[in-house]
Design a protein that fits this description.
CATH class: Alpha Beta
Structural class: alpha/beta
Number of strands: 12
Length: 297
């Protein structure tokens, strides 16, 4: 799982009164890599990720995978590539369900922590450092399943390029699965306290990432050094169409009225561990999930 910025949002560039400056994409990606390197050390020690439970209990699964297995289906005996795997908790969970897993991430520190978790927990898994768009150059094989986790897509500048990577890494007839924050939730102001849902951020993909400054992260632990992040929202139509254009056949697209994080002040945490708006306030999707199959020809 990779957490979205919006649960610890500090401010964006325009809110600080800073000039809107075009930053080269390589600099934006490098800023994000440094940010995730810093997060990985904190997350590995956090109660949020609870790595001790994976080491102590060989059957322990992440909350994310407990849900996703109901939609993705049986992975036993399948090769599975987990893109943007962060410190590997979801990847390890898929391995415990019987898949032969490979996880990739742009952050070397995240991959270091993931490899350590694999060794310490006795759960075989392969982890490789790879910026998302470089994945086919780093891993020269195709998989039965490709998946990506919650909070991953906002860190990608080009959703069409992402879909092409997914397609290239899948075997013909292979399955792709994603569950992530809904782009509508990413466009609505999450700092309001008047129960109004107001669109203030881009819904559709833009070439320039939205710039954020701050010291927070979504897991418990010490604050990060001052950092800069860049995020990109992608409209639901852009996501679906990019996969269709990459020769994937959509099997389902679900929109969910629950989230995995406290995205808006009025949301409440239910007994199942998910966050929801109060009754009669559930006017907006908070997550989506999608399953697709790579065409045979």
């Amino acid at each position: 799982m990779r957490g979205p910025f919006l649960i610890y949002v500090c401010s964006n560039q325009s809110e600080f009164g800073l000039p809107e400056v075009s930053v080269p994409i390589d600099e934006q990606r490098e800023a994000n890599r440094q940010s995730w390197d810093a997060r990985a050390r904190i997350h590995a020690e956090s109660r949020f990720y609870d790595l001790a439970s994976y080491i102590r209990d060989p059957a322990h699964l992440s909350d994310t995978v407990r849900f996703d297995r109901t939609e993705l289906g049986d992975v036993s005996g399948k090769s599975l590539l987990h893109l943007q795997c962060h410190i590997g908790t979801d990847t390890i969970s898929w391995a415990r369900l019987g898949a032969t897993v490979t996880g990739t991430d742009l952050s070397p520190v995240s991959i270091e922590q993931a490899r350590k978790l694999s060794a310490d927990s006795g759960t075989p898994a392969r982890f490789e450092v790879a910026e998302l768009y470089d994945t086919p150059d780093v891993i020269n094989e195709k998989f039965d399943i490709v998946c990506t986790g919650v909070g991953a897509l906002v860190w990608l500048p080009d959703i069409r390029g992402w879909a092409q990577v997914v397609s290239r890494m899948l075997k013909p007839g292979g399955v792709f699965y994603v569950r992530d924050g809904h782009p509508m939730a990413g466009a609505v102001d999450n700092g309001r306290k008047d129960d109004q849902l107001i669109v203030t951020a881009p819904y559709f993909e833009r070439s320039e990432g939205t710039r954020y400054e701050g010291t927070g992260t979504y897991a418990d632990g010490p604050e990060l050094p001052d950092k800069v992040d860049y995020e990109w929202n992608h409209g639901l139509g852009e996501i679906v169409t990019s996969l269709i254009d990459a020769d994937l056949r959509i099997e389902f697209l679900h929109e969910h009225q629950f989230g995995e994080w406290h995205a808006f002040p009025e949301m409440q945490k239910d007994n199942d561990g998910y966050w929801r708006f109060p009754e009669n306030r559930d006017h907006m999707p908070l997550m989506f999930s999608l399953r697709a199959t790579k065409e045979l020809s």
